[in-house]
Amino acid sequence: MKQDMDGTAKSFWQSAGYVSWFTADTASAVGAALRALAISLLGYAVSGSTIAAGWLGTSSMIAQQVASVFGGTFVDRHDRKRLIVANSVVGVLAWGAIAVLLLCGALSFPVLLLIAVLASGINGFLGSATDAMLRSIIDIRYYPKARSLNEGRDATIAMAGSPIGGFLYSIAPWLPFLASACMYAVAGVAATGIREYGSDGGRIGETDGDAVKGGFFRDFLEGWSCSSWRHWSISASTASNMPSSCIWCRAGPMRPSSDSSVAAYR
Hints:
single chain, 10 helices, about 80% helix, disordered N terminus, disordered C terminus
């Protein structure tokens, strides 16, 4: 068992493009985590209103989540490597611009809101490209292990990123945004190092031909109809079991009511 685990770990780092992919994905996650808390702190500092600061963080999150709904279908139809680089470039420009404007003392709340919403929306739209690309650069037998490693790393970054971002903000308000821009720059450079061809001879990151045969909205609706049907089936199954559960809870487990019943049962 230990030899199998060692072989699996060894295969990760020896797979063509995995190190570059892991670096790019980690840097992107760190960049997003560092500015998560700092953006709300900066919103309050610029506007002087807790309501405005709250709406800044809420608007950014809404833009990211709504864009991610359509992003999965878009990523499946385009070269994922280029999408990773494009997302990194946007992160460098957006959060680097906020850092520069803070250093120059020229940042206003409307400008901050516009940049934060646009950058978060683009990140939600293109951010899934890294996870979608993982299956293309490692042996499929090792995908579950690599996926679990990726989830653990993301959880660690999400837990530690906001406190670190807040600490950097206490040193200088522009510092977490500059650090975030640098992380996105690292992600973009690392993504360019992913090898162009995989073991199957295909181009890494490109979609299959079947993914572009249908229209965008047809693929989008098909994906959502499948997901909706799955959730409806689970809900219907749960609802069908509720009456029997309620009867059991109300009546309680069957047990002998007296010693004579016990004797008769025996």
